[in-house]
Amino acid sequence: HLQKKRRAATARRQHLKSAMLQLAVTEIEKETAAKEVEKQNYLAEHCPPLSLPGSMQELQELCKKLHAKIESVDEERYDTEVKLQKTTKELEDLSQKLFDLRGKFKRPPLRRVRMSADAMLRALLGSKHKVCMDLRANLKQVKKEDTEKEKDLRDVGDWRKNIEEKSGMEGRKKMFEAGE
User: Fold this and answer.
1) Residues above pLDDT 70, as percent of the chain
2) Are 118 and 132 in contact (CB under 8 A)?
3) Mean pLDDT rounded to a whole number for the chain
4) What is the DSSP secondary structure assignment for residue 139, as one 8-state letter?
5) Which of 7, 80, 91, 143 reaches 20 to 30 Å from 62, CA-CA?
6) Which SUPFAM superfamilies does the record associate with it (predicted)?
7) Helix 168-179 and helix 159-166: axis angle, to 10°?
8) Is 174 helix (H, G, I), strand (E, B) or coil?
């Protein structure tokens, strides 16, 4: 009994789909026919059929009229292009304002800049900045004696020194004399 209901529901759905598709097809055909009629009416109104006169003077007048018509159409086209550019610019400005109001900013690509702390403070505060930051003031003081003791320890344990003494012909001569 349940399967019969399902079959009936799917059959009804398919019937409704096909009916909707038929309606859509007829509506599309009506729209295309209406557009074609509208196009024919527009062409009949704005583009009268061309009748070529027989004499040369009439032909020249017709050419002059056509040139005047072309110029007016070009002026209209130019005006519409300028209006379009203005509206696109306004649209971009408004979208940018909207973006700004939302608070979602595009971050510009940042570049590394080498700048001292003084220069940074001067750039931020302007000419008001007169304090000189001495970054070395907070460093730990090292006693000279400590460095001399470490140097002595380094000299004793420095293997490079021994290698330099033994390298070359003089070093081999010393080794040979020491061996004898």
Assistant:
1) 68
2) yes
3) 79
4) S
5) 80
6) Troponin coil-coiled subunits
7) 90
8) helix
Which range is most confident: 58-72, 99-113, 134-148?
A: 58-72
Residues with Cβ < 8 Å from 91, sequence gap 6 or more?
none
- pLDDT-based confidence at 153, cuts 50/70/90? low
Distance CA 121, CA 112 (A): 17
Q: Are 135 and 117 in contact (CB under 8 A)?
A: yes
Token output for 120? 């940074």
CA distances to 28, 55, 167, 178, 180 from 172, rounded to whole Å, are: 104, 119, 7, 10, 12
158: left (phi over 0), alpha (psi -120 to 50) or beta: beta
Alpha helices in the chain, H assignment, sequence order: 2-46, 56-102, 117-125, 144-157, 159-166, 168-179
Return left, alpha or beta for 104; rule: phi > 0 is left, psi -120 to 50 is alpha, else beta.
beta
Quote the pLDDT of residue 26: 95
Chain center to CA of 156: 62
Q: Which two tokens stand for residue 117?
A: 């702390």
Q: How many CA atoms lie within 13 A of 83 on its CB side?
A: 6
